[in-house]
């Protein structure tokens, strides 16, 4: 073989390598949008012996509940599960086990996960075990996101409990409470969370899996983040035409923006009907002429239950001066709602939402307790996300002075 032929042969080989490399890069840039089928495998350590234990695989939507696509029953003798997932394009999926534990993943490659399953602790707390899902590099974006969120939530509980017990022992030893009140933490919970998420978003800039984070920025209480989310969504739509979730998320922002304007300060209270304990429909028109605090809550919400004694103090102090309260539960279990009402003994009217999702969308909240203070004319004065000393002070000021308040959302801890 001549030297020229050898050179041509090697040139052809290197050209082939280069083309393969270029194809690989192109696939990476496209976010592996051509992945149609993957395998999902896992194990469950503990199951609930009192029920039929299912593992449910669902596709996560940009609005509304996840869409179940498959399920399998497991038992003590068979604690493994397998799904052959067929899809049009990669997206976000969730796995729920024993109606308790769950995890989420990005479906651009085969995944596997070892889940804890049923909570074997004596006291059950609705904080699912953190599950690391083995999969692609893009899938790790979801692993990191979920760990950041869970650690943030656990830190929130620790800080709340620390402050609560410090106040409880203030009469015996005030040093602890004094230290907490005067010492500024290196970062607030929200700032710490946002900084970590921002670094993660920069590391995965313009990857399709970032829709997982952007989904959280389209929520009902994220008005300050809407513009940022829209910019990032437009980039994803242009870069990955197959990513229908980006278009859905953009539509969700547009809808939430419109609805948020309807429940802004100064707007009339939206019309809606709620059910009493006998199943009869009621609206809130009867409260015109009074200041009204609408408390959206649920029996299972710890912060909601903790706020009730403070709301009772408000009610007792101002009810005789034209102030009323209505509690609207978003419980799905009527018996749990009725049991909580009996335990709390709230002296004001109790209703339950006939549709939790509709109520949360109409009043633009994703966490509870959420409270709306309504004027005697039937217009919205302020919205309070959670119940805090600041929220209480604002309500008292309005009730004492008969003014419309600061017209802003006052945030506190909520579930």
Q: How many independent structural domains? A: 3
Distance between the termini: 76 Å
Gyration radius, to the nearest Å?
26 Å
- What's the CATH class of the largest domain, please? Alpha Beta
Oligomer: single chain
Shape call: globular
The biggest beta sheet is recorded as:
6 strands, mixed
User: Which consecutive residue ranges, at least 5 long each, have pLDDT under 50?
Assistant: 1-31, 405-415
Strand order of the largest sheet: 13-12-11-14-15-16
CATH architecture of the largest domain: 3-Layer(aba) Sandwich
Order of helices and strands: HEEEEEEEEHHHHHHEEEHEHEHEEHE
Mean pLDDT: 84
Say what the CATH topology of the largest domain is: Glutaredoxin
How would you classify the helix and strand content by structural class? alpha/beta
Beta content: 15-25%
Query: What is the overall number of helices?
Result: 11
Number of extended strands: 16
According to CATH, the homologous superfamily of the largest domain is Glutaredoxin
Instruction: Please bin the fraction of helical residues.
Output: 40-55%
Description:
The protein is built from 11 helices and 16 strands. It is an alpha/beta fold and 415 residues long. A hairpin with a 5-residue loop joins β14 (370-374) and β15. It has 3 domains: 37-135, Immunoglobulin-like; 143-262, no CATH class; 274-411, Glutaredoxin (3-Layer(aba) Sandwich), CATH 3.40.30. It has helices at 3-29, 137-168, 175-182, 189-203, 211-216, 226-239, 244-262, 302-318, 334-344, 356-362, 389-401; strands at 37-46, 53-59, 67-74, 80-86, 92-97, 101-106, 111-117, 133-134, 274-275, 281-282, 291-297, 323-329, 349-352, 370-374, 380-385, 410-411. The termini are far apart. α2 packs antiparallel against α4. The strands form 4 sheets. Strands 13-12-11-14-15-16 form a 6-stranded mixed beta sheet. Strands 4-1-7-8 form a 4-stranded mixed beta sheet. Strands 3-2-5-6 form a 4-stranded antiparallel beta sheet. Helices cover 41% and strands 21% of the residues. Residues 1-31 and 405-415 have low confidence and may be disordered.
């Amino acid at each position: 073989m001549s030297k020229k032929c050898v050179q041509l042969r090697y040139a052809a080989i290197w050209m082939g390598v280069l083309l393969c490399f270029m194809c690989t890069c192109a696939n990476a840039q496209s976010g592996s949008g051509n992945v149609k089928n993957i395998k999902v495998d896992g194990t469950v350590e503990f199951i609930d012996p009192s029920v039929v234990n299912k593992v449910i695989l669902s596709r996560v939507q940009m609005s509304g509940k996840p869409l179940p696509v498959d399920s399998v029953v497991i038992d003590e003798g068979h604690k493994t599960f397998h799904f052959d997932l067929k899809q049009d394009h990669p997206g976000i999926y969730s796995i729920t086990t024993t109606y308790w534990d769950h995890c989420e993943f990005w479906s651009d490659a085969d995944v596997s996960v070892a889940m804890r399953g049923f909570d074997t602790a004596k006291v059950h707390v609705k904080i699912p075990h953190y599950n690391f899902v083995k999969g692609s590099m893009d899938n790790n974006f979801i692993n990191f996101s979920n760990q950041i969120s869970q650690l943030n939530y656990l830190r929130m509980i620790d800080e709340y409990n620390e402050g609560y017990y410090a106040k409880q022992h203030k009469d015996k030893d005030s040093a602890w409470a004094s230290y907490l009140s005067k010492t500024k933490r290196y970062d607030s919970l929200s700032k710490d969370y946002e900084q970590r998420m921002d670094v993660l978003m920069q590391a995965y800039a313009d990857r399709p899996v970032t829709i997982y984070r952007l989904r959280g920025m389209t929520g009902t209480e994220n008005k300050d983040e809407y513009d940022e989310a829209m910019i990032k969504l437009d980039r994803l739509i242009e870069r990955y035409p197959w990513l229908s979730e980006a278009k859905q998320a953009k539509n969700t922002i547009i809808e939430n923006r419109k609805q948020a304007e309807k429940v802004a300060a100064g707007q009339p209270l939206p019309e809606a009907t709620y059910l009493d304990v006998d199943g009869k429909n009621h609206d809130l028109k009867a409260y015109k002429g009074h200041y009204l605090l609408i408390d959206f809550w649920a029996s299972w919400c710890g912060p909601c239950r903790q706020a009730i004694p403070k709301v009772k103090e408000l009610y007792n102090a101002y009810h005789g001066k034209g102030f009323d309260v209505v509690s609207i539960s978003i419980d799905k279990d009527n018996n749990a709602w009725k049991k909580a009402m009996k335990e709390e003994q709230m002296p004001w009217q109790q209703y339950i939402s006939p549709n939790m999702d509709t109520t949360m969308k109409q009043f633009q909240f994703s966490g509870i307790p959420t409270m709306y203070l309504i004027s005697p004319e039937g217009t919205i004065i302020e919205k309070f996300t959670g119940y805090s000393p600041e929220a209480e002070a604002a309500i008292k000021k309005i009730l004492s002075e008969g003014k419309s308040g600061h017209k802003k959302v006052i945030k506190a801890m909520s579930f």
